[in-house]
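Re: duplicated header lines in exported structure tokens

Our pipeline writes sequence and tokens for each protein into one text file. With two proteins the header for the second block appears twice in some exports. Here is an export where it did not happen, for reference. First protein block:
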Amino acid sequence: MRVKRVPTQYDVMIAGGGVIGSAIAYFLKGWVGFPGSVLVVEKDPTYANSSTSRSAGGIRQQFSTPENIAMSMFGVQFVRAAREHLAVDGEGPEIPFVEQGYLFLATPAGLPILRQNHELQRAAGAEIALLDEAGLRERFPWLNTDGLAGGGYGLKNEGWTDPYGLLQAFRRKARALGVEYRKDEIVGVERSQGRVAAVRLAEGGRVSCGALVNAAGAHASEIAAMAGLELPVRPRKRFVYVFDCREPGLSRAPLTIDPTGVYFRPEGQSFICGVSPPEERDPDCLDLEVEYELFEEVVWPAIAHRVPAFESIKLQRAWAGLYDYNLLDQNAILGPHPQLPNFYAANGFSGHGLQQSPAVGRAIAELIAYGAYRSLDLARFSCERVLAGRPLRELNVV
């Protein structure tokens, strides 16, 4: 019986098979037509604890950075056409998109920033309405507008999708295009003459590669450290709480972000909600234990104040997921590292990775295949800004 040889050399190796890594793999083979071999290394092919599977799946254009707006606009159009783009043998995936918008609420103090962001979003082609307090009361009668001066509301192309479904569709299509997925873990990176030469796998031993893409999510800084590089990306835990509310009329509510940072949105017959913890309660963390005190002390009081119908709710369950949190500016870090030019970063999305995955997949694929961006210039997210300590701050982080 012939023993199948496992290849020990690839043109491109991708560390991490979540939605970012799988999007890069798909765009390499299916969009730019990269002729070389591609290997995706993923230690948990069930994705049970992956950031993708535990994401809330939001897609919005209400950002303060033009490139983030553009990436999200491409992302929503890709999701809408996923059945065509990601079809295998004529069978396309059914990726839902619940188009109910985002609603960013602002106090009088926050209104100037909301207006500034709104002008930027409209200039980029996003269909966002700027509502005053009277407009909020008229459109959303269930909303308590006490202390509010206005809100930004997505009229089109904002909502949420199925994160796990999108991940699996990318993965299935990438494999159909010839991408190899291997269950293993990277435990070392070898350098030679200023470039990545090979990686060492826990089970597969030494595998040489022409390029290494770091799409390891919350573990991104670990992969970088193996290559002798430093990334300001840390694993930060976020909680999603699920609750019931018997009050009718809220099932069509948008994903609503209170000025406190607390958010909620419908999820089937229930609702989900959450908030980014304050810095003193937000350590680097890799466990997935849920902190219920945050719901009781911060989340529930905020949503009960903003939506009177939420004063009497029942918490059903909760889960935790990990952000690959960029300490510098909460924006993505993309592209080749100047100290190691065949080491590509696709990290630091700080909760925006799912919605940015199509644009990032396309962008990294273009850099590898052509040596430059062709569709959307994302040079402002380069590794150089990190080395220079030059933040590109995103104001709308949820």
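Second protein block, exported in the same file:
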Amino acid sequence: MLPRCRPAGEPFVIPPFDVQVSDVEGFMDEVQTFQSVFHDCFARSETRAPFWDDMVGQYSPLARKSIEPIALAVEGGCIRSRQRFLSETVWEQEQMRWNDHQLVADEFGEPDGVLMFDESAFVKKGKDAAGVARQYCGTLGKVENCQVGVFAGDASRQGYGLVDQRLFLPEVWFGPLYAARRVKCQVPDDLPLQTKPQLAAEMLQRIRQEGILPFRYSVADSGYGNSPAFLAALDAGVGTTALVGVSSETRCWPQRPTTQEKAYRYKGEERAKRQLLPTALSPQSVAALAATLPAWQWYRRTVSEGTKGPIEYDFARHRVTVWKDGLPERTVWLVIKRTRGPEPT
């Protein structure tokens, strides 16, 4: 049932999941043991029953795993009790997160683990759920009526799992037209407007402060790599390495340019500002830099096993200084990936 280990020289093996009846014997006992770990998150024992029903329903073969189908499928299930459980029951969310992180750390935590940050959208037909609006839906690849969540995942050689999440509220939800919806969905009055990278930065800071999940690397795509808030949160992690995507139009210098302080007067006050020397070269885009790299600087790597064979890309790395507001900012390693073929991209 479990994927076989990836041996040396064969790092990207499609795991065989030939599940047999014997593989799932005692499965419900395992689920019950897992569920008992979270008993201390509920103030009353009566709320644990619908919590158990919900877990059983999520593992069922139901096509739609919403409140009513699960309640009707689970033995002794009640639609109303599940509705109350999800809408009215109060549980210790921080305790639940702490218990979950302890499980993840015990099961597959490693010092060189990886924290992953990304978003996912959920298509919605109605308009009364918190955060629902017409916005980009990655699962459909277009703008659609949906909710968007930002998620943190933990991965190591032993396995992977979700460890935190935040619901993204679009800006329209903070306007007067959505005041009634905010009340109906019980959105806290003091909840600030936050971007997706800001939500990811908040999760990263919490996980680091908690100190339960061991990790060495943090990864995210260019939507987060272009965010000053998220980059600042990454910089605060001493002893960790960040790998974040950037746009091909990101501007940089192959060598850090020299700057100087220029004095000037503003409203009678002496001030100074930093600026590039007149002889400094202009920054260039990442795409332009990649086009100038010699052939010897590129190396080929297999990144995964596809249905038609190994999937390979060419890679190169170069030390660059990133441009920001006309001045050099941080100096980083730029890792460039391009497709193979006569016209690589």
